[in-house]
Amino acid sequence: MSHLVIAPVLFPLFAATLLLLLRRVMPLRVRRSLNLVALIIQILLVSLLVQSVAGGEILVYALGNWPAPYGIVMVADRLSVWMLLVTSLVAFFAMLYAVRGTDAGSRHFHPLFQLQLFGLSGAFLTGDLFNLFVFFEILLLASYGLLLHRGGANRVRAGLHFVALNLAGSTLFLFAVGTLYAILGTLNMADLAVKAAATPPENLGVVRAAGLLLFVVFALKAALIPLYLWLPAAYSSTSAPVAALFAIMTKVGAYSILRVYTLIFGAEAGPVADLIGPWLLPLALATMAIGTLGVLAAHELRRQVAYLVVVSVGFLLTAFALGTDASIGAGLYYVAHSTFAAAAFFLLADIIAMGRGTLADRLDPGPVIANANLVGAFFFITAILVSGLPPLSGFLGKYMMLNAAVDLPSMPWVFGVILSAGLFGVIALARSGSLLFYRAEGTIERTGTAGRHAIGPNWGRLLPVIGLLLLCVALVVWAGPLSDYTRATAEQLLQPSVYIRAVLGDPQS
User: Fold this and answer.
1) Residue (of 316, 250, 233, 247) closest to 93 by Cα position
2) By the 8 A CB rule, do 335 and 222 touch?
3) At a CB cut-off of 8 Å and minimum separation 6, what does 246 contact?
């Protein structure tokens, strides 16, 4: 039993505790350095874990040496470590931007950042449904604090909606978990998969109801229509590095849908198999369509980027809904692309907003910002990325997805919605770029009427954006081995018996 499995969970907790205890005596520059070093170590730990499971191994860590299903287990497979790697990389670049000044004003920013990472890591590694609920609550508690960092009426308003909706989701999660435990007598995911497949006829209705209730909770976390309304306000109101980190938050809901509905309610689940099959594809396509309307209608750049996150959720869940190894593999490749691209766009939108004084990120013609050619070039590259134009990773993700859908009955709907969303996304971003850069005129506004000063971009702020864009370039350069990895991950997911044997052991041994 390798302790490496639990290291990405414990290390952020240790860093958060240290930063919390020493927040009053430790200067801000030391807290910044400590947090960045902790994030680099986290990336190294996750990289070692990736190497350990790349060959298809599933590593199980039983806390206290209590075997499943009686004890708590952490499970590292290809899917969980892929999500961990994307999370740790985006967290590093978000923090690299935050240390340029966003983190000032509260001693709790750095502990909350690590606590958020602790919750995310735990959610991806846990092999237990109740502990998935616990880690959801931890990351949500941290996200409440990060969302409200440095205050403001819009943040408080968005934060209240965020808190109220997620508390409702947590309550439903508890109801679903309690119902499953009452009927099946376990919450270990592998054991649940075994017992759900043998559900007696008299309990089928209750188990199906609990499974659908879980879907509602995960759909809320993923921002699936009609439960997406909290996302645009929350993501566009908070600070840029927090919004960049939140780019992975919706993926936790999508991950949970993929994990639970391939393992517990998957094709081998007998009477409860394919529980959300009739619902997921129409909802995912509708999410993509509604998100695209939001992108077209947005009047601020940050809100437009937030709606692009909604579109990416629809794309991702469409890939998962198709249910083939090719489509799920394409979706997992797209997870990395959409997270890095959205995070880069949130940071770039903040740089643009700071350069426009009182106009901030409002999509109206304004003064020419400092280094407009440089910032405009980054805007152009990022717009190509998120709209899925060649030759960058967004295009490759869409190509793999469309290729996977060619022979499926739902092909016309999938092609129609994805291609339309891409076309309207290009139109919306071209309009935004034109208003922000091409139609800009006049001098740089140094002091706004509301007292807001225009701040030109500097390399310190641009560096995290460049880093995230380079990660997207890496997705293109190593597209072959990475797509092979995500395809192999999908094949592993579609064989839940392999996961069950790894966690519960071989019954014949």
Assistant:
1) 247
2) no
3) 143, 234, 235, 238
- Listing DSSP states for 237-284 in one string gives HS-HHHHHHHTTHHHHHHHHHHHHHHHTSSTTSGGGTTTTHHHHHHHH
Match 């290291």 to its residue by tokens.
7
- Dihedral sign for Cα 162, 168, 170, 176, please: negative
User: Coil, strand, or helix at residue 188?
Assistant: strand
The average pLDDT across 483-506 equals: 94
The pLDDT, as a whole number, for residue 446 is: 54
| Residue 35 in this model has a pLDDT that exceeds 70 | yes
| CA-wise closest residue to 250 among 303, 300, 296, 317 | 317
Token pair for 38: 């902790």
Distance CA 168, CA 136 (A): 13
97 φ/ψ angles, rounded to the nearest 5 degrees: -75, -40
Q: In Å, how far are 203, 269, 277, 340 from 90, measured between CA atoms? A: 43, 35, 31, 6
Q: Is 223 left (phi over 0), alpha (psi -120 to 50) or beta?
A: left
* pLDDT value of position 443: 65
What secondary structure letter does DSSP report for 228?
A: -
State CA 95 to chain mean position distance.
16
Write the CA distances from 314 to 93, 407, 435, integer angstroms. Answer: 25, 20, 27
Stretch 268-281: mean pLDDT: 90
Is residue 175 within 8 A of residue 53, CB to CB? The reply is: no
Residue 450 has pLDDT above 50, yes or no: no
Phi, psi dihedral angles at 40 (to 5 degrees) = -65, -45
71 contacts 250 by C-beta, under 8 angstroms: no
Within 13 A of 176's CA, how many CA atoms are on the CB side? 23
Residue 449's pLDDT band (boundaries 50, 70, 90)?
A: very low
The letter for the amino acid at 318 is T
Alpha-carbon 132 to chain mean position: 16
Distance between alpha carbon 393 and the CA centroid of its chain, in Å? 17
Question: CA-based angle 83:146:39, to the nearest 5?
Answer: 45
Q: Which SS3 state, helix, strand or coil, does residue 12 take?
A: helix
Taken in order 208, 210, 211, 215, the sign of the CA dihedral is: positive
pLDDT at 451: 44
- Phi and psi of 373, rounded to 5°? -65, -40
User: Phi and psi of 452, rounded to 5°?
Assistant: -90, 130
Other residues' Cβ atoms within 10 Å of the Cβ of residue 416: 12
Question: Do 3 and 74 meet the contact criterion of CB atoms below 8 Å apart?
Answer: no
Q: How far is CA 95 from CA 21, 127, 456, in A?
A: 20, 29, 20
Mean pLDDT confidence for 260-272:
92
